[in-house]
Design brief:
Shape: elongated
CATH topology of the domain at 1-168: Leucine-rich Repeat Variant
Helix content: 55-70%
Radius of gyration: 30 Å
Distance between the termini: 83 Å
CATH class of the domain at 1-168: Mainly Alpha
């Protein structure tokens, strides 16, 4: 099933995974295909090959519809049969392959290109393979059916595919309210156009990871972001909200000085510009990370020198010395001694 999903995702235009090390079988397939230009020879290789990388490389070089049909019917590998069907142009043939109950590879590839809406709808509703149903949803034109699938299909992957085809705001809102899986709700939320509604859902949704993703990727409302920064129960959500605040120095100061969570104080401190407040934080905050980030924002050389000499944390002292350019300025007594010499 995973291989089938990956294959259909490639057909849908999603990128394939990148691996640090190319498997030998993949190198072998590419090398062989690069040496051959004759389409009949390539078709014969694809039909017989058990190398999972061969179909993708070889079929890309085959345009002959007769050869592609032969591969679709005879190839050992499902990837090869499906890849060949995907390049077929004859709708009658695609229709026949889409009805093939015994081969989900050709069925999924065929229905993805099928114009016959009756058969596509039947496959989208009834096929036992979620990857095939997803492929059928891609070709559907009936928005009511797409909405029904988005709300009711047993597979979250199929529901997500259907949501990607929807624009009806009322339907999306219904999905957001009733969908149990947060990562399906995210897809629906990201398609909402009503900023007020979006903000309200973001504040109230019980899943912290959903609030985080929406805050990070969708939200730009400064009032909502300020509320999340101060009040959300999820530290990550608050951190993201703080990072997206604009022209809210007073709020950042309040959080940096008074919040009980040291991570949140650190995030707020890292965005401060007020040198007086930063100097206060670096002298009074109990957490060394908060003080260290305050040092990174400081420019007052006298304060930095004092921190470099006196802070109880080696990390904070080192950060202050780094901000001073690596040289700790001498004390006044040392200066006078040097002058008297």
């Amino acid at each position: 099933m995973k291989k089938m999903l990956s294959f259909l995702f490639v057909l849908a235009g999603f990128s394939t995974p990148i691996y640090a090390r190319i498997p030998p079988a993949q190198t072998e397939a590419l090398s062989m295909v690069n040496r051959i230009d004759d389409q009949a020879t390539l078709a014969d290789i694809v039909i017989k090959s058990t190398n999972q990388y061969m179909p993708n490389y070889a079929i890309n070089k085959i345009d002959d519809q007769t050869l592609l049909l032969e591969i679709a019917k005879k190839a050992v590998l499902g990837e090869a049969r499906g890849g060949a069907v995907h390049k077929l142009e004859n709708q009658t043939l695609l229709y026949e392959f889409a009805k093939n109950k015994d081969d989900e590879w050709v069925r999924g590839a065929a229905v993805y290109k099928l114009k016959d809406q009756v058969l596509a709808a039947d496959v989208a509703k009834k096929d036992k393979h979620e990857a095939v149903r997803s492929a059928a949803v891609h070709t559907l034109e009936d928005k009511n059916l797409i909405a029904d699938i988005a709300k009711n299909d047993a597979s979250m992957n199929v529901r997500k595919t259907a949501i990607s085809r929807l624009d009806d705001q009322a339907v999306l809102l219904e999905i957001i309210k009733n969908e149990k899986e947060w990562w399906v709700r995210v897809d629906a939320i990201c398609k909402l156009k009503d900023k007020t509604l979006l903000a309200e859902i973001t504040k109230k949704d019980p899943e912290g990871i959903l609030r985080l993703m929406v805050a990070q990727n969708v939200l730009d409302d400064q009032v909502v972001l300020a509320d999340l920064a101060k009040n959300d129960e999820n530290v990550q959500v608050r951190s993201v909200a703080i990072s997206k605040l604009k022209d809210q120095e007073a709020l950042l100061i309040e959080i940096a000085k008074n919040d009980l969570n040291n991570v949140i104080r650190t995030c707020a401190t890292a965005r401060l510009n007020d040198q007086i407040v930063l100097a206060e934080i670096v002298k009074t905050d109990e957490d060394e990370e908060v003080r260290r980030y305050a040092v990174t924002q400081l420019s007052d050389q006298t304060v930095l020198a004092d921190v470099a000499r006196n802070d109880v944390s080696e990390k904070v002292r080192f950060q202050a010395i780094h901000k001073l350019g690596g040289n700790l300025p001498p004390l006044e007594e040392e200066k006078r001694t040097q002058q008297n010499r």
